Amino acid sequence: MNHQLSCTCKIFFFISILTTFTLNLCAQSPEIKVLHAARLLDIETGKVLQPGEVLVEGERIKAVGEKVEHPTDAQFIDLGDVTLMPGLIDAHVHLFLHPGAEDLQTVEESTPWRTLLAADAARADLMAGYTAERDMGTEGAGSADTAIRRAIDSGLIPGPRMRMSGNAIDILGGHEDANKYNPEQHVLSNADRANTASELIAVMREQHKQGSDFAKLYETGPDSMVNGVLRTPYQYTVEELEATVAEAKRLNIVVAVHAMGEPGTLYAAKAGVASIDHATQLSDETMRIMKEKHIPAVPTFAIFEYFAEHAESPTVKAREEAQLQYKIAEFKKQIAAGIPFAVGSDVGPFPHGTQAHEMTLMVKYGMKPLAVLQADLIEGARLLGWADSIGELKSGYFADIIAVPGNPLDDITVCEHVKFVMKGGVIYKQ
Ligand SMILES: [Zn+2]
CATH number, domain at 176? Predict the structure, then answer.
């Protein structure tokens, strides 16, 4: 009897395993979609296919062309009079910042509250067409960004693919420290503090342990514009920066810097950082090294324009506008010098989901639309460590695809009006 029962059990067990296996096979067969649109932009060549189609299998692109195979089990999606292109990349965001609360956020807002706001920011950025981003510092929320990355990657919340830095790293009394408050209140810095090469390495190891993808350092600051002259005191020496780049290599990560001007920009270029962000002032020697080592500048015009337009007083407005004008003049020299660029908006202090305006500004101040799109997508993918996975519509790449009205090569502002968003084969906006 017992023996019979055990046999019956075994048979049932075997059948149930077989059923589960078969069901799993059915459940796991990837969804197939064919996207069709009036146009498709090949970012690498600048060629516009008319019409354009993408065959998506599961989370990846299987084929791209004017016409692709239409498998019988595929869902056919006709998007009409739009241009298909790769999902946008923002190489400089702050999911943990929002308008009006930057400097005293660590005092006024708890990290759990800021994490909830960051989740909402991630959703807003994705809906605006950003399918990948590099977060350049939580500004006082430590490694809470790793929770956002995990929630996005596990499908719990919608958001871009993220590279997270945790807190940025800064010197005592530096750009992001809580300076000039009542010392007795011990207001916390918005960054992790490191004053020497050994302290820098210790902080990088701590952040790595907590799950950061790269290290963000403040190399200049506090930055200011006084009577038309840009003042950007450096924070770390070349030797100190070299120590961080060496440690980053050991950890298989990279170092990115906030560096507004000389000599910090030169020190960063010499040390071989991954990108120089803000990059308002670059000497000829700095630009020569950036070209030689292929270090992109990330101009972040959008934040400068926003601060100039939302200044608290006429005096501040005049100063912010002077800084923007100076930056525009320097940017024209940088374009002429042929340095590489990536696109980062510094969104956070201005509303999430509006940052495609950065590309509009880069065109307005001198770059061709295709050059800006290549900087955003090809250089951006490389900078985020996802070259050969995102930034282009190619077979084998992630199906991170957006659609914009019109043709972005004729009018870059169409990127501010994204109509369709797919990330990893999943449609988030249609
Ligand atoms: Zn920033």
Answer: 3.20.20.140
* 349 Cα to the center of ligand 1, angstroms: 9
Reported as a single tens digit per residue, the pLDDT across 118-168 is 999 999 999 999 999 999 999 999 999 999 999 999 999 999 999 999 999
For residue 360, being part of any structural domain is answered with no
Tell me, in angstroms, the distance from the centre of ligand 1 to residue 352's CA: 13
User: Mean pLDDT score of the chain, rounded to an integer?
Assistant: 93
- The pTM of this model reads 0.93
The reply to whether 307 and 430 lie within a common domain is no
How many angstroms does the Cα of residue 5 sit away from the middle of ligand 1?
67
Give the number of other CB atoms < 10 A from CB of residue 312: 8
Compute, in angstroms, the gap from residue 276 CA to the centroid of ligand 1: 11
- Token couple for 391: 């930034």
Q: What angle do CA 199, 200, 204 make, to 5 degrees?
A: 115
**Range(s) of the domain holding residue 413:** 31-87+387-430
Residue 48 is part of a domain; what is its CATH number?
2.30.40.10
CA 92 to centroid of ligand 1, rounded, Å: 6
Ligand 1 centroid to Cα of residue 93, in Å, is 6
> Cβ(170)–Cβ(218) under 8 Å?
yes
CA 22 to CA 48: how far, in whole Å? 43
Cα(159) to centroid(ligand 1), Å = 19
Residues 191 and 60 in one domain: no
Please tell me the distance between residue 422's alpha carbon and the centre of ligand 1 in angstroms. 26
- If you measure from the C-alpha of residue 98 to the centroid of ligand 1, how many angstroms do you get, rounded to a whole number? 12
Kindly report which listed range (47-56, 74-83, 96-105, 404-413) carries the lowest average pLDDT score.
Answer: 96-105
Select from 397, 333, 424 the least CA-distant residue to 44: 397
Tell me the residue type at 155: G
Considering its fold, how many domains does the chain have in total? 2
Residue 19 lies in a domain: no
Are 144 and 182 in the same domain? yes
Query: Which of residues 311, 336, 355 is at a domain's end?
Result: 355
What is the whole-number distance in angstroms between the Cα of residue 94 and the centre of ligand 1? 6
